User: Fold this.
Amino acid sequence: MENKIVKKVDLIFQECNADEVISIIEKTLQKSQDDVILEVIDSGLKGRGGAGFPTGLKWKFTKNEDNPVKYVICNADEGEPGTFKDREILDRVGYKILGGMTICGYAIGAKEGYIYLRGEYNFLLKKLQEQVDNFNKLLQNKNVDFKVFLKSGSGAYICGEESALFESMEGKRGEPRNKPPYPTVAGYNSKPTVINNVETLVYVTMILKMGAENFKQFGTHDSRGSKVFSVSGDTPIAGIYELELGMPLQDFVDDFGDGDTKAVQVGGASGHCVPRKQFKDTIIGFEGIPTGGSMMVFNSSRSMYNVLHDYLEFFTEESCGQCTPCRVGCQQLLLGIEAVKKGERKPAYLEELKKLASTMKVAAKCGLGQSVANPFNSIVDNFKEEIIY
Amino acid sequence: MSEYIVNLKINNISVSVKEGTTILEAAQQLNFNIPTLCNHPDLSVAGNCRVCVVEVKGARLLAASCATPVSEGMEVFTNSEKVRTARKHVIELLLSEHNADCTKCFKNGNCELQEMASEYRVGDHVFIDLVKQKKNKIDISSPSIAKDDSKCIRCQRCVRTCTELQSVSALAVVNKGDHQFISTFMNKPMHEVVCTNCGQCINRCPTGALTERTYTEEVWNAINDPNKHVVVQTAPAVRVALGEDLGFEVGHRVTGKLVSALKHIGFDSVLDTDFTADLTIMEEGTELLTRLKRALVDGEDVALPMMTSCSPGWIKFQEHMFPNLLNNLSTCKSPQQMFGALAKTYYAKKKGIDPKNMVSVSIMPCVAKKFEANRPEMRDSGYQDVDYVLTTRELAMMVKQAGINFIKLPDENYDSIMGDSTGAAVIFGATGGVMEAALRTAYEIVTGREVPFTNLNISPVRGMDGVKSASVLITDVKPEWSFLEGVELRVAIAHGLSNAKKLMEAIERKEVNYHFIEIMGCPGGCIGGGGQPIPTSMDIRKKRTEAIYAEDEGLPLRKSHENPEVALIYKDFLTEPLGHKSHDLLHTHYKSRNRY
Assistant:
């Protein structure tokens, strides 16, 4: 395993105006669709929303679908607690997102793209709309048959889950669908759809600009490239940083911690809590702990019971409520730790709850319910005494 | 459906099924039972209860077997340790949010959650009781349906029933997470929304969250009151379904035992709604012929097609959704309400009973009938025409409470008068039945000949197609009906409100042109009514329908106009169809309602 030190990178926020993006697109259109997909596969780019599915493969599956109507969707429903990087990307390099969408549209054979913008980010809407209108005109002038539209969410965390996002876009209740079929086969309006995170699409533009080989210089074998991190909590330098993937968590804490870091929650509320004793052995990347970008740093003044309690309150409220393990499971985990804390249930009840969380991990319908076990089991395992006493 | 065959293994046994088959269906082919809750054969797949999860070799997640199609080489395990653990957790979680007040619950003994919990031997104390944490509400605003949110397990079968089968959408999912529940428009009480009281949601609720409003105690009180004369009428569809709740197989006819049980229970007069079904044919058939005459001879602008009015769920649906077509509804009351109005007038007079001491009860396959009996228009006898409506299920409960060994009961006959029935009346219970009965009589009145179908069975109007149509050419008519010579009478039939809606929209768009339309609010007609034994499925409804037609064929009289008691009531009381007295007692009007 290669070890890297924390290395700051500047790909995402590199200035790139509309004309420059258009020229990247023009260059891309010289290549065949398959060559574009191959280049993205070759770059090793994996989804930056957190799940880490290889982007090029997703495109390939969608391209292979025999359907005259396909869609590209940019998932800008950034709602994971502790994650605030897409907001900055949308604000600063909107054209690069639109470029990534157009490149994807060309590669898979889609003529329409949609940005699904988180309801709470509506303050970005005006500027984005202007950019989209301008960009659509530029594409039209260059005879590129692709058009981007904006859709606004209404504030539900679950709508960041891709199939719930499609339901929301179709005007229905934002509830995840059964899978299969996957979006590459039946996504928005039941048509083959590529849905990518904001950051992923920007990297696409950069890969097509700089070439896959240059992109692969960053990161490790399993985690190519860099990643934008939202750093918050007990750190003197909270903010947004683009860093190479594959760094040991210890190096990150050395750079960003306040000297008293006892735990880092990697990947937001639905991610893993890593305690101090595991910093050295934890790699931030797909070979270790993958993340959508949130790094919440906690020092010894923090109660991990309160941290877990907050997360569980969040999930209890934001579960769509459709499937049993998630709807009822979240409530039981929340009430369960409260009962243990108050002494109404014995500490051994935490073991029952961990088993329940493990069931949720395999039996819930979507990623929301499946991932509650990540914070629950990692915090209960590592900070049991804080939960009980 | 695809022709591709997929090979897989379930619990190490090989099976080959068509592509697109779900794991659940494939397992059923191998006789492996996988428990389900949110799944229902009449509804779309939801995959949200997660009770049916199974393990697929190599997969990170358990798969909801109801929602996961098979794939080549798949290896499925339906009862592995991982599966059992998850399944028990799901049941325990559901129990933790379910008010397990079982002994008092109407669904006790017929509750899918209860059955599953006892199968897995899990209790409701593993996790924290969530029922106590919430302000659940019991809505008994409707005279037909009781909605108890504390028993709801959010499987959404009711929502899918209301939307998919009935196109009503009175019930919907609101809020998310721990605040999610099943509600109505603006969370209004059930009696203030578009609910048609069809009760199809009750038939598909796995627990006791949705049940009928029960009136058995009121009926027991009336029976036990020596000053009351309690009259009971039984709808056609009850006799082919009641047995299911009392030890018989689906499709077993129990007409004689039904009568016998009602007499044992203590009803003073056991009579038959079939009598007023036959009467309905006389009134409605005459109304149709009159409308046709006014349209064809007098050139009047008469509302056609005429539509049947027997199904109170359908009537309320029409009042909400298509108020501009209310004039097309026959003015005939439903057989239940005709019966009620006649019981407290004609029957009371004939038998020398003071109608104020009469309690009129009906046994119906329906919960909308409870609403109908409470409509303010339904008091033409000077009293509430029908006092209490019980469902088939409520009657089964009373039979059990009375300690009657139903299986061993001897058959008995209905009392007279208003107890005679023809086969035409019996088939009111199945979709197409009213149409068939009407055609048997109308054709014969007009031509003097029997309908030109083998053995009187008008097969084009039968069956489970959602919308059916047929036509009958009328020739060689009697002189007084000369205006109908050569007329091709076009009819259509729909059952289930989604199908009714499709037909109404086609009429509004003037895409179709019929003279007479039969609509039943429930899938399959009354045999699939919201008050019938649970469970329901296409297979069950078909068996009940077969029983209805067998009952028809077994009766000596099969045409409504041949019912001797019908002839008698016109001679002694009503004088003629659509006459003055009929108008007062047997006909009604409708009101426009809002659409939300």
Summary: The interface with chain A takes residues 45-51, 53, 60-62, 64, 67-69, 82, 85-86, 89-90, 93-94, 96-97, 126-128, 130, 133, 153-154, 156, 173, 175-180 of chain B (CB under 8 Å). Chain B has four domains: 5-79, 103-113+123-212, 216-275+336-408, 281-332+422-586. The first helix of chain B runs from residue 23 to 29. The CA atoms of residues 229 and 358 of chain B lie 5 Å apart.
